[in-house]
């Protein structure tokens, strides 16, 4: 089998020996003009991408995607100028693209969601976020997965398709975070004494913000104790350190103010 017959079968019946000089010249002119147009369009695309801060994180991916599409389109146009039936080629690429998209459905969904996340930026690396009750510091924002590092130093990889439909709470974006703790005191302890002890505990931490001001309230009457609510604000970076240290400081503060910390009681009545 000759080379011409092989090429004829590949190109859908077009005989390369039948190509005229004018056809070849027309294809070359089309190719040269197409290359120039592609370069001009890519410069315009790059200029638009450089001006957009929202697209900064996905600039390289958009550049590559546009470049591939333009070169594919130019290839089809040049083949058409050579009288190659491009309909069959487009059909083959369409079927192949459909097969690939079905096989990589989840990956493509994660990829598209990753682009949306990078553009909208609900969080960036370093933010402390809570995603569907899972809290952690954002370590990586990828095209397919994003990674959180929990306070227990666990790495959690979350598919971007789940992130796009999840409820995301970003504690870092506003720079400060509200903290609430509940503390129980004995019924015998005066309310003002308990509040004074809790204020004493709060005053031990300069990391607690003065605006909004700390607040202490009587919250609920329990079976064997009275529950008090302490509400303070800290920066996001100081939140967990202050939380645990404040919990530890409550007991010494109660001891200094002679406030009894209750425990569950069980009354037993003996019947004669």
What distinguishing features does this structure have?
272 residues, elongated, SH3 type barrels, 3-stranded antiparallel sheet, Alpha-Beta Plaits, 8 strands, Helix Hairpins, 3 domains, 5-stranded antiparallel sheet, alpha+beta, single chain, 48% helix
Provide a descriptive summary of the structure in words.
With 272 residues, the chain is of the alpha+beta class. It folds into three domains: 104 residues, Helix Hairpins (Orthogonal Bundle), CATH 1.10.287.1260; 49 residues, SH3 type barrels; 81 residues, Alpha-Beta Plaits (2-Layer Sandwich), CATH 3.30.70. It has eight helices and eight strands; from the N terminus they run αααααββββαββαββα. Strands 4-3-2-1-5 form a five-stranded antiparallel beta sheet. A three-stranded antiparallel beta sheet has the order 6-8-7, with helices on one face. Helix 2 packs antiparallel against helix 3 and helix 7 crosses helix 8. The termini are far apart. The relative contact order is 0.08.
Furnish the topology, listing elements before pairings.
Blueprint: H1 3-10, H2 21-51, H3 59-81, H4 86-103, H5 105-120, E1 128-131, E2 134-141, E3 145-149, E4 155-159, H6 160-163, E5 168-170, E6 176-185, H7 191-202, E7 215-221, E8 226-235, H8 239-256
């Amino acid at each position: 089998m000759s080379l011409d017959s092989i090429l004829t079968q590949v190109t859908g019946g077009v005989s390369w020996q039948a190509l005229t000089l004018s056809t070849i010249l027309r294809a070359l002119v089309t190719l040269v003009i197409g290359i120039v147009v592609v370069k001009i369009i890519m410069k315009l695309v790059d200029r638009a991408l450089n001006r957009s801060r929202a697209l900064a994180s996905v600039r390289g991916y958009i550049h590559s995607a546009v470049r591939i599409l333009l070169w594919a389109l130019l290839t089809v146009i040049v083949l058409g100028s050579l009288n190659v039936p491009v309909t069959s080629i487009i059909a083959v690429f369409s079927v192949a693209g459909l097969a690939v998209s079905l096989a990589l459905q989840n990956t493509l969904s994660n990829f598209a969601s990753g682009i949306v996340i990078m553009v909208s930026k609900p969080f960036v690396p370093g933010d402390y976020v809570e995603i569907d009750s899972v809290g952690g510091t954002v370590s990586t924002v990828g095209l397919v997965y994003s990674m959180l590092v929990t306070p227990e130093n666990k790495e959690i990889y979350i598919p971007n398709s789940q992130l796009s439909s999840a409820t995301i709470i970003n504690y870092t974006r506003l720079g400060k975070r509200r903290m609430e703790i509940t503390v129980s005191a004995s019924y015998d302890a005066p309310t003002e004494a308990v509040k004074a002890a809790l204020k004493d505990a709060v005053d031990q931490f300069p990391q607690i913000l003065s605006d909004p001001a700390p607040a202490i309230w009587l919250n609920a009457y329990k079976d064997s104790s009275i529950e008090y609510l302490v509400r303070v604000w800290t920066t996001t970076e100081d939140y967990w350190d202050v939380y645990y240290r404040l919990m530890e400081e409550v007991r010494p503060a109660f001891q200094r103010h002679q406030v009894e910390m209750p425990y569950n009681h069980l009354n037993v009545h003996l019947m004669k």
